[in-house]
Amino acid sequence: MNLPSAYEQEMKELLGTELEAYKKSLDLPVMQGLRVNSAKITCEEFEAVSPFSMEKVPWIPNGYFLKEEERASRHPYYYAGLYYIQEPSAMTPASRLPVEPGDYVLDLCAAPGGKATELGSRLGGEGLLFANDISSSRAKALLKNLEMAGIPNIYVTSEDPEVLERNFSGFFDKVLIDAPCSGEGMFHREPRMMEYWKERGPEAYVPIQKKLILQGAGMLRGGGMLLYSTCTFSRKEDEEVIEYLLQNMPDMRLKEILPYEGFAKGAGLEKCVRIFPHRMPGEGHFLALLEKSQKTGEDSGRDRRRPGKRKPQKMPDCVEEFLSLLACPIDRERLKLDRDRLYLLPIREEMPKLRYLRTGLYLGDLKKNRFEPSQALAMALKPEAFVSCIRLEPEDVRAVKYLKGETLDVSDLPVTKQKGWQLICVKDYPLGFGKLAGGVLKNKYYAGWRWQ
């Protein structure tokens, strides 16, 4: 691979005698990977049902290498949200931010959702995940991936981080910033990135990165943690951005990152981590974990409250009728009927007015005198949480037909209710809703997600 001469010189200064090993690694096959969605299935359960040839990613608890020829996006389990297709080194940032159930988590540059879906799954439905991307089109892809993963406690926005900082000073327990960068770690996978690099190299991104990291740190509560990452090798975009933060916010300090034998130390900041493709399988990444000091007497953030607590709304009869089909508890103070759309908010308190794509779990729509449940609700449920389910085997052609939006004959399958709403599953993993009458299932799979 012919690298840009200026880039090769920078890498020589960074790697020294390892430069040739790095260059040779760029001629190796591209690594494919998937990350199991632990909110839906354990790794042991997935290994038992997986049709793919896989090998564990040793530094990611739920990560796997895939053979290059595997088409993991063309399987019903993908549509059930059991895994996310992700390059192995890109799995690392979310795995090293210590998110716990109940945390308030911000992913500031979240699209398309590879890191946000992992952060959301580790919340276990408690607390909230605030996922933002300034690009509206990319934020739509982010929303789809979060809903496919079955993450219920989300706010998804497409806002300038400056707006978020004004509204959420000291609000979040954990912040992840996978910053836009010159993408040097992408040269192997996407050689065309080298042309973009020549036009728009590290210098173009540094001002954006420095601004983002200050904004992210400003939204972090005392005692909270921030993880900054890039998929580039430039010290200007990596260690120098961290040094800039430490100079401007003395209440931030670097933390050790959970180690792995293949990780390289940061250049001048040894607590940072560099992933190089000649040292371990993966395209490359940079990570830095930081903690904000907590002032004496400062609230831990667990009991924070925003002004404007909501009042419970009275729900129409058709909504009450549908909610009776759910065998899971619903906090009625978090139900919000906005025009004809029903949501289950992550928290009871009102949030500021922003450019939201989603506020919580989208439950469904009022249509005249009936209620139609949403695709997002189906993906967030477990089979035992709904009154009646239809289970299809992944080898059953009806699984793909359902994903294509076709009407199905399911008269041979056991059901609890012989008519009305059904949760359609591949084995025990929901795909969507359908409506049953006389052994025929009317397909309600969301058209925008259909198998093409």
TrEMBL record:
Q: Which InterPro entries match?
A: Methyltr_RsmF_N, MeTrfase_RsmB-F_NOP2_cat, MeTrfase_RsmB-F_NOP2_dom, Nol1_Nop2_Fmu_2, RCMT, RsmB/NOL1/NOP2-like_CS, RsmF_methylt_CI, SAM-dependent_MTases_sf
- What residues make up the catalytic site? C231
Amino acids binding S-adenosyl-L-methionine:
C109, A110, A111, P112, G113, G114, K115, D133, D160, D178
SUPFAM superfamilies (alphabetical): S-adenosyl-L-methionine-dependent methyltransferases
One GO molecular-function entry: RNA binding
One of its Pfam families is Methyltr_RsmF_N
The answer, when asked if RNA-binding is one of the entry's keywords, is yes
Going by the UniProt record, its keywords in alphabetical order are: Cytoplasm, Methyltransferase, RNA-binding, S-adenosyl-L-methionine, Transferase
Basic residues: compositionally biased ranges: 303-313
Tell whether Transferase is among the UniProt keywords. Answer: yes
Q: Show the segment(s) annotated as Disordered.
A: 295-315
Q: Look up the record and give one Gene Ontology term from the biological process aspect.
A: RNA methylation
Q: Report the residue ranges that make up the SAM-dependent MTase RsmB/NOP-type domain in this protein.
A: 22-293
Family listed: Belongs to the class I-like SAM-binding methyltransferase superfamily. RsmB/NOP family.
Record's protein name: SAM-dependent methyltransferase
Where does this protein come from, organism-wise?
Blautia pseudococcoides
Organism classification:
Bacteria, Bacillati, Bacillota, Clostridia, Lachnospirales
